[in-house]
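Query protein
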Amino acid sequence: MRNRFPSFSLSSYGASWSGNRRIAIVVAAVAGLLGLAVIVALWTGGGNRHQVPDSAAPAPTGSPSSPEAAPKPSSGSGSVPGPPQVAEPVAYAKAAAQMLWSYDTRDTSRDQQLAGMRAWMTTETKYVDWASVAGQVPDPVLWSRMADQDQHATAHITEGHYPGAFKQALAEDPSAITEAYIYVVTVNGKQQISWKKGGGGAEDRAVTLAVQCRPNHDCTLAAIAPSVTQ
C-alpha cells in the first residue's frame, strides 16, 4: 500500500490550502516572472509519495491533516538536518529536496520533523507558504503507524534546474526578481524507503520549490510551488 508522505513528501495532505492561496503566494513571490498560464496548474504532489508497508494499518481517509501554524520550539529536530549556509538557489533547492525526501521515524517524532522543516523556511511572512510544506507531514496517527514499522527514508538528488518558463521570464525582465528574490527550481532524485524485516523500495521523485535568495544572505525555502513547465 502506498501513502503520500507529505509533499515534503510525506503526503498529499498539503492540499488543505486552497489552490488560489498557493498560486497567490508564488505569483507574489516571483513578481510576475511566470505567466498565468504556467502557474494555474497546481502542484499535486505526484511522484512525492511515501510508502507504508503492507503490514501497517491503512492510512485514515477523510480530511487532510491541518498544517500547524508552527511546530513546538522545544521539540528539537531529531534526524532532520539543519539548513546549509548556501547563497545559490539551485544548490539550496537540491539540499531542501533531499531534506524533504528523507525522514526517520525511529528517532524523530512528528513534532520534531515539523520543527526541523520549519528551520529551512524564510521568515518573511509575505512570501512564506509554511502550509505547503507542513501539510506534507502525515497526520499523527499515520506517523505513529509508520514509527511502529521503523519506517525511514534517504534520498539521492540527481539534478536541479530552473524551469524553462522561469528562465525565459527572467531573461525578458531581469529586474522583476528584485522585489522578493524568489527563484523557482525543479529538483529530481530518487528516494529509498525501508522498514522492518528488510522491507523497502525506491521511487523517483520530483518537486518544484520556491527558494528565496536575497543578496548577501543565505537562501531559505519559501514554498513547495505549483507545477511549472520543466
Q: What stands out?
A: Residues 2-53+79-224 form one domain.
